[in-house]
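Form 7-S
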Amino acid sequence: MAFEMHSSLCFLFLLQLLPFFTVADTYQNITLGSFLTAIDDNSSWPSPSGEFAFGFRKLSLDGFMLAIWFNKIPEKTIVWSVRDYLVQQGSKVEITPDGRFLVYDIATGEQHLIANGSTATGVAYAAMLDTGNLVLANRNSKILWESFQQPTDTILPTQTLNTGGMLQAQLTPTNYSRGRFQLILNSDKLVFYTTHFPSDYPNFPYRVIETGGGAAFQLIFNQSGYIYLTDKNGSMLHNISTNKVPMEDFFQRATLEFDGVLKHYVYRKSTNSNVERGWYFLAYEPPNICTAISTTAGASAGGGVCGFNSLCKHDEKGLNTCYCPSNYTYIDPNDERKGCRPAFIPQSCDQASPEADLFEFEVMSNTDWPLGDYDQIRPAEDEQWCKQNCLEDCFCAVAIFYVKSKTCWKKGLPLMNGKFDKSAGWRLHVKKRKDSANSTISPGVSVPKKKDKSSLILVGSVLIIVVTHLSVFIITFLVISRIYYRKALLTKLCPVLQGINLKCFTYMELKEATNGFMEEIGSGAFSTVFKGVLASDDGRCIAVKRLNTIAREDDLEFKGEVSSIGRTNHRNLVQLLGFCDEGQHRLLVYEFMSNGSLASFLFGESRPNWYLRRHIALGTARGLFYLHEECSSQIIHCDIKPQNILIDDSFTARIADFGVAKLLRTDQTRTSTRIRGTKGYVAPEWFKNLPITAKVDVYSYGILLLELICCRKKFDEEAEDEDQMILADWAYDCYRQKKLHLLLETDDEKATDDIKTMEKYVMIAFLCIQDDPSLRPTMKNVIHLLEGTVEVSLPPDPSSGFMQFK
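Output:
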């Protein structure tokens, strides 16, 4: 997408001399006493052209948020909201008869004042304008309150930010709460701040736009697409964006993003299906936020762009990504900017057990955590000496050796404001535990040492000394022998895996917890699952999966697979708590899901409502995306089906059995077809001997999504109409014939009312079950399609193979 760049300084100068004006808005009065009820996303007041709307937006199961959004694009991008205030279904917003702008929360019975208007101050009506501005006005149409003067993270064309005005970024791409960055227009400059999150108090500036001595008065976003600073006389002081963008052809916004970057976005209005649509940014400030924050004087405090112990990477397209260093993992996969934590047990500071020999270094180039040094040693002999000094220092996490000055720098946790930097002329040595059994010795545990307690004794007591020492020697020998014997036995029965936080259970522990494997709650071809209770963990319920001996693998592969599963951590995965690797016994211990599987939930008598099914579909997609792209090593599930999606207490989808299909190696045990998975959910490439990729899970997810939409199984041999037996075929016929309502004949009213969203989900399912795996979307794209951030293209017959996914 190319846009005309204005380079004529004369034209720009003349433009600033023109008085700033707004678009002549037409509007429809919202009379006093009008209200909206939080029911669905259609509960809104649109602007006359329909380009903007104000109302309730549903945020998954968290509740409804009052917001203004672009109403004519599939993404429904939010530009203003009442932050940190969610209400439940049935709540309402009202322009009261006495002129106040109130929200009534049905859950708490409380009232929340949006605008302090009243008939006494002259409020006569409200209006949603075509500029995206929500206003309260008097009978003479004078604006008494407007959303343009209370911005959140976005300004729109014709909007100004006055002196003292502020934009505050949202927390994450999907969490609209107050985030970690602010933009404030001071009297003489425009300043970008980090905050002392979770408070709103500014921490330090990371980008300051000076005005060359002029007094900044307004940040203006005019209708031609220019964004610039002016003084009180209207003279331009500084340009933020000089891209001329015609309003009749493009939607526009300038947003302080969750990563702290102010971006000027455009979106083509054309409805031509041949024109690619979506938000694109033309300009952004600062040019490189990774460098801007890490080189700021105040960067010695706070988590910076990506949080503690992480690294920020800025690419040539202007995008910023957060990474964890090797052997570190995200604290919260749903919020990468919370930072990273070591994926290993930290080094002990016990002088009796320094553990220096249990650690080594990962070498990293073109990276830096500036201003985080707590010690320097100068002169230092060489790089190896510097590394050894760090190994012997339990506080040291990173060592750097400067050859020219022969200086050894040491950094400790947490590491701050990390960045990828090609100009870094040094190598970072990041400490980690070695991959060996000895590396999991717990900090503070020391090997008993024999102490010399001999003292001078009278010559006449030699005999007593001999007897005493002999007794001490024998007792000490027996005690130490017993300690090492028990430790060796425990290591043999319960080998520890490096770098994972899993408990190693003995077989007798799990047998006792399950009451002799009494209560069976599930079974498959290669395993049986039992409910258990851990008396040692306050009666915590667990699910114990006992792998059949016929599917037993050798020790190394079992440990490798358990290690990969144990390193996963995501809210949409069932958490592996521990394992047993004892003789012929191979058992996996998971957290217990009280609401059972999606199969019993979906196909039982009490079916989940439409909103809950959408929530489950999105949660499952996020879990698969994590397995495919966010794990340290990719995990392909190979058996996505309702029986392997469990539902927790809060009705969140949790994927189970991930990695187990690979762990069991079913292609080398009971099956001769080399196919993994369950009939009906298996991707076509299994039958064609094609390379198996993560796209097999996408195919299975597509079938699962159809089951979620229709609340019926993939195959119904009892269907009265033979054409309805295979769900995918029937669903496509209904879609092609524009009879999607037939899929919901027995469903609740909400799904029928939300037929447009239901149609979109059906289309996404067809994209996922294309015969050619290269035509299926990735799970990341599936999430974007479900969330509405990417428009869904028209799908052909899933088996036609002619569609290209973009």
